[in-house]
Amino acid sequence: MLGLAVLVAVGSVVGLIAARDDLDRLHFLAPASVVSPVLVALAVVVREALDGRAIKALLVAAFFVVLNPILSQATARAQRVREHGDWRLTGEERR
Amino acid sequence: MTGWLVAAAAVLVLVLAVGIVASRGPLMRRVIALEVGGVLVTLALVLLAEGFDRDVYFDLAVVLGAMTFAASLVFVRFLERWL
């Protein structure tokens, strides 16, 4: 599980470096912040059973699982506002 | 050296790579790299806590996880409105 978590993180970083633009890059935030923490937390649970450490590791994973979509959305929105001045569709895009 | 510490070392190498991305290029790319870096550092702290068998490092990881999110959100809002 640990190896898989590290592999997923490696894939995310390679994607971050190799992606074409910033919105593509943003997609590679998700595997590193959802899959890897969950796998690490599960590895801690398997090793320690459900004690204080495991609960804290699960809490960290839960933070990222819940908060990552919010952060991704906010970042994408900021990118759009910087490019177009507003996050809503422009008249040209509506047509 | 346990598997936990090896995994932590691997993640810390990734943090270096992300740090290089975060230190050059356009602003949004840097912010995205910063977000990925925050996640990886938190992950490394969890791995180090388990590897060194230290309870207190888990507390650091929990706090860092929450603070990373808040810090990134503040950065993003500033980028959207003022920078």
Element order of chain B: H for helix, E for strand: HHH
Proportion of strand residues of chain A:
under 5%
SSE class of chain A? mainly alpha
> What's the alpha carbon Rg of chain A, rounded to whole Å?
17 Å
In total, the number of domains of chain A comes to: 1
- The DSSP helix count of chain A reads 5
Which chain pair shows the most residues in contact? Answer: A-B, 44 and 40 residues
Structural class of chain B: mainly alpha
Task: Estimate the global geometry of chain B from the Cα principal axes.
Answer: flat
What is the overall number of helices of chain B?
3
Major sheet of chain B: none
Radius of gyration of chain B: 14 Å
Largest sheet of chain A: none
Helix proportion range of chain B: over 70%
Uncertain regions spanning at least 5 consecutive residues of chain B: none
Count up the domains of chain B: 1
First CA to last CA of chain A: what distance? 48 Å
Mean pLDDT of chain A equals 87
Beta-strand level of the residues of chain B, as a percent range?
under 5%
Overall, the morphology of chain A is elongated
Instruction: Count the E strands of chain A.
Output: 0
Characteristic terms for this protein:
heterodimer; A: 95 residues; mainly alpha; elongated; B: mainly alpha; 0% strand
